Prior knowledge:
The protein is 1% helix and 57% strand. The protein has 469 residues and is mostly beta strands. The strands form 6 sheets. Strands 23, 24, 25, 26, 27, 28, 29, 30, 31 and 32 form a 10-stranded antiparallel sheet that branches. The model has no long low-confidence stretch (mean pLDDT 97).
Amino acid sequence: MAEAVKVTNERYRLKYHVSTPGGWMNDPNGFSFFKGYYHLFYQYYPYSAQKGPMHWGHYRSRDLVHWEELPIALAPDDEQNVCFSGSAIEKDGRLYLIYTGHQYHDLNDHTQFTETQNIAYSDDGIHFKKDAHNPIIAAAPADNTQHFRDPKVWRQGKYYYMILGSQAANGLGRALNYRSENLFDWEYLGPIANAQTSAQEGFMWECPDLFTLGDHDILLCSPQGIEPDGLRFLNEFQTGYFSGKMDYQQNKFARGAFTELDHGHDFYAAQTMLAPDHRRILIGWMDMWNANFPEQADGWSGALTVPRKLSYASGHLYMKPIAELMSLRTEKIMAEEGVVTSLEVTTPDPQHCELLFEADTSSWSGNEISFTLESKQQDLVSLTWNKKTGQVTVIRADKPDGDDKRYGNLQTSASLKLHIFIDTSSIEFFLNDGELVFSERYYTENQPQIFFSADKGIKAKVEGYTLAQ
Length: 469
């Protein structure tokens, strides 16, 4: 047996986010609730900080904030037969994991592979057994390429449905739909939606997720291959959504245009679950393919976002940090109200804090409000809102010129609200109650400083809290 890699340096380790205990982490999987616990699985390679043959790591939590590490839930049969992403669902008191089996034809050529859909189960939510009759779906449709993965399963009426990310034979991304009465025997219904062009909507749709918010259905997915369009779609791959209406009788999803969900450098492969109180909660991978991962030198790589509550209003998907995160607050470090031109946040622990900034901008005659995280007079991460254009710009100092900026736009509003979570090597910005979100990783071994500033004094309220570690 190989030995799991050890973390050799804690300098970048996150304290209140879900992260790998050591080794490699990417997509969240199997986000679910079972027997009093939230369960969160993830793509995991325990034997190196570099990506390797995929396992499913596993955490559980009573409150979505404090997580307990559990044994590996799924492991590869061998290096050629690994466990790619999927989902989880409870049926008759048993927790089922539905996942993609990814079989390499040649370990020296990872472009040649076959993907099947498989199932494993557990009665205690800790120990899982792969079903002896796997796969439950043995082949992609005839009009598909080899790309056929990431099943998300849910119950609708008397049927279970499974949506899969795929690539049609014409080279365009799409979402396929299956249904079953028992989770084991699946009927293929066909694609519910297809990319119009590769440049606009991608050549492969990874990690699809279909759910309802109010009167709207949302198809969440991570398309690969969307080309940059001005200030949009600047990441290697995107995560976003189509809003519309799912017709289960016709197996069609009538939808609008693709919209980016998180505008930061580090957000991919998001997955949602329906909590017992009927909130739709999302967690994403807080990194990006082909990024630089400085923590790999320390024996680990990868983290997940804080859990986020989703809501839909006025044609827009909002994403806010869940209320349970307030339980992390240990000390109020500031509560100021007054005119802000330049304000430094004074805290003994600037890398583990929550900040809230709110300003009435309706009659303000200035034009820019900024947040800066800096170290030794050098910016690490900055965010600037422009009142005239509504544009928000985030700049990462560790990125090369041309890839250092990410952009988004806020609707016209009488106020600007910033809700910020900082955790050792991550920062998440939620603007105007989750209308606009940026997720970022940053890296420093120095004690940073935090500033709010405006190009003209503005009346603002600022709160800050140290967060438990």
